C-alpha cells in the first residue's frame, strides 16, 4: 500500500525566527524525508478576548512575552513571511501547509494557494471560517477532531457535504493534550472515522501528540492516510510544544518505519514467492525414497 503522507508539524517551534523555520523545513525534507512542513497562523487580536490577550502568560518559564498576547505575537509570522516559507518549501520540493485559527488568517493564507490548509481541533466549530474556506479555497481542507463530540464531527462532515466539498476533506482523529498518555490516544477512533466517513470524505488522518513512534505504525494499519506529528530541532528549547515533539532523528525513523510497514502490508501475489523458491528447494521436507536393495 501507499505510505501515509507525513506532516512535520513545526507549529510555533521556530521560536519566531525565520532562519530556524527554514532550517526545520530543510531538515524535515532532506534528513527526515517528510512530505509536508506545517506551520500555524493566528490573528491574535481576533482569536483572543481582550482579557486573554492582556493576561500574564500562564507558563512564565516558556513565555516569549509578558502577556499571553505578547507571547503569541512573538511567535507569529506575517502573511509575507508565510509566502517566503511557502516559496522556500516549493524550491526544496516539500509541501508547505499551515493551520489557520481564524477567518483573517484563512483569508491571508488561501491566496498563497497551498495544497492543503488545516483546521485545528480548537477551531473546527468556527463555521464562518469553514464556510469561507469551502467557498473560496480550492485545495484540500484537513480538519482535526480533538476535544470534539461525535455529533459535532457529524455536523462538520455534513457541512462539507452540503457545500459539495466533502471529497476535498480529510478528517483527523486526534486527542488534544501535550503530551497525550498512550491510554488516551484512542487509536481505534481512526477505524470509527473510517467506517463512518471513509466513503464520504477524501481520507482519514491521525494527528498524534503522544511520545515516541511506536503507535503511528498502528495508525497506518487502521487506515490513516495522513499522519501529523509535532517536530522540533531540540526538545529542550523554550516553548510548550517542544517536549511533546519529535527531534529530527525521531521523525526520520518514523518515516522509515511507516515506509517499511506500508511496503509490507500486502498479500502474497503468488502462493510461493520467487524469494522463497530457493528455500523451498533447499529446506522443504521431502519424504525419503526407501531403496529396496
Ligand atoms: C493544533 C493543531 O492541530 P491538532 O488539533 O490536530 O492538534 C494545528 O494544526 O494547529
Automatic annotation (TrEMBL):
Alphabetical list of InterPro entries matching this protein: Aldolase_TIM, PseI-like, PseI/NeuA/B-like_N
One example of a Gene Ontology biological process annotation: carbohydrate biosynthetic process
Domain (PseI/NeuA/B-like): residue spans on this chain: 24-270
Family matches, as Pfam families: NeuB
Protein name (Swiss-Prot/TrEMBL): N-acetylneuraminate synthase
GO function term, MF aspect, one: N-acylneuraminate-9-phosphate synthase activity
Amino acid at each position: 500500500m501507499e505510505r501515509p503522507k507525513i506532516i512535520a508539524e513545526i507549529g510555533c517551534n521556530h521560536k519566531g525566527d525565520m532562519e530556524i523555520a527554514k532550517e526545520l523545513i530543510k531538515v524535515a525534507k532532506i534528513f527526515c524525508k517528510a512530505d509536508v512542513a506545517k506551520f500555524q497562523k493566528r490573528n491574535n487580536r481576533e482569536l483572543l478576548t481582550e482579557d486573554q490577550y492582556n493576561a500574564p502568560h500562564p507558563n512564565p518559564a516558556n513565555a516569549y512575552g509578558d502577556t499571553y498576547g505578547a507571547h503569541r505575537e512573538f511567535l507569529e509570522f506575517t502573511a509575507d513571511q508565510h509566502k517566503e516559507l511557502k516559496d522556500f518549501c516549493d524550491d526544496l520540493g516539500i509541501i508547505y501547509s499551515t493551520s489557520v485559527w481564524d477567518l483573517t488568517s484563512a483569508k491571508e493564507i488561501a491566496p498563497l494557494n497551498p495544497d492543503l490548509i488545516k483546521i485545528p481541533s480548537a477551531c473546527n466549530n468556527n463555521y464562518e471560517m469553514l464556510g469561507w474556506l469551502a467557498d473560496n479555497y480550492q485545495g484540500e481542507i484537513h480538519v482535526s477532531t480533538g476535544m470534539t463530540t461525535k455529533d459535532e464531527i457529524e455536523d462538520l462532515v455534513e457541512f462539507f457535504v452540503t457545500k459539495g466539498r466533502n471529497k476535498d476533506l480529510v478528517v483527523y482523529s486526534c486527542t488534544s493534550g501535550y503530551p497525550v498518555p498512550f491510554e488516551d490516544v484512542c487509536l481505534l477512533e481512526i477505524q470509527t472515522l473510517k467506517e463512518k466517513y471513509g466513503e464520504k470524505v477524501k481520507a482519514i488522518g491521525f494527528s498524534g501528540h503522544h511520545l515516541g513512534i511506536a503507535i503511528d505504525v498502528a495508525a497506518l494499519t487502521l487506515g490513516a492516510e495522513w499522519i501529523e506529528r509535532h517536530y522540533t530541532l531540540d526538545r529542550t528549547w523554550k516553548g510548550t510544544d517542544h517536549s511533546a515533539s519529535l527531534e529530527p532523528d525521531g521523525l526520520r525513523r518514523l518515516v522509515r518505519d511507516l515506509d517499511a510497514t506500508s511496503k509490507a502490508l500486502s498479500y502474497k501475489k503468488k502462493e510461493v514467492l520467487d524469494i522463497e523458491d530457493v528455500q523451498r528447494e533447499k529446506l522443504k521436507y521431502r519424504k525419503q525414497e526407501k531403496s529396496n536393495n
